[in-house]
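Input sequence (391 aa), recorded before submission:
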Amino acid sequence: MPSTDIHTVDGRPVRILSVGLHNKDAGPDFFNADIVIDGEDWIGNVEIHTRSTDWYRHGHDHDPAYDNVILHVVEQADGDVVTSSGRSVPQVEVQVPGYVVSSYEQLQAADHHPPCLVHAASLAPFLLRQWVGRLTTERLERKVADIEARLHYCNNDWEHVFFITLARAFGFGINSDTFEQWARIIPYRGAAKHRDDLQLITALFLGQAGFLNTEDNHLDSYKEKAALSSLYSFLCNKFSLTPMSAHSWRFLRTRPGNFPNVRLEQLAHLYCEGRVSLSAALEAADTEAAANLFSGVSLPRRSVSLLLLNAVVPMLYAYGTYRGSKKMKDKALLWLSQLPAEDNRYSRQWLQAGLPMDSAADSQAVLQQFTRYCQRRDCLRCQLGYQYMKR
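Predicted structure, token format:
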């Protein structure tokens, strides 16, 4: 919307000093806008609709959350609008150009990758870099929200949260949800008392995963299975444990080195060595030092990079947010820019469009682009969609 030569539907001049903050949740579309209407300065919220009558269709006339709306922007003003307190809301009518509507309809109708992607490479580099940077931060903030939910579950025990977050990362996508479910039923504080006994911890980890109480699993060839089962029975009595079903885990199309029971054994080793923890991650000087935390088990370099990307970096950023430490958050962003880019269908599509992919920061941004905007067809809030529609 232009910031000059604007008038309300009843002829009063409007000057926009600040559009405010875009609201992505429930409530008015923009918060804390600063708008001068007929010489009077107003600070409040802005709501946008296609028609004025949408105000009533959405129930805003009965919702106190919309009482502070100072301007209603519509394409077609087909009536007056009032708040739940009875105050009349000024309206501005803005016509959307036909070419914008046509471009938007093309984006919404696309049945393959978004059409805007092929034009994104022609964007000014600073615009593209700015948008990618925002996507990277959005992706991290989404992971921070997940970590904060775990923090509440763990009664503010950050090391416990790190254990759950790392376990989820050990699922490497296909078993991530199951690994998190498993980590939540491990008696974390009780297990800490047995950290010097690898066999006992291995029995606990495999037993809680359901691998020691069934014949139909991938541990039947283990010579130690009987001993591990006996230890797990002892732990069940001690901690009143209930194991998961072994059928929760996915083995299909998974390489033997990535079988969940193998990953659980690796976690047991790392846990007993005490090398991988939030405190150790916080002390690591760089990504190489952080990667060395996983050197106690046999993991490909690519897998270590994914663990840093999906567990260590988000934990650093979340802890930095919690502590109000910009230095720690900057460290997380720096590490993200130093880790290699992920290789997946989203990053490959991005590269095929001639767009840069230099690091994990970029591949995380692309993942956010496709899952948050493209899959939801939320083109109006996407910089690539915006640039496509204004052509």
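Checked by second reader. The longest strand covers residues 40-51.
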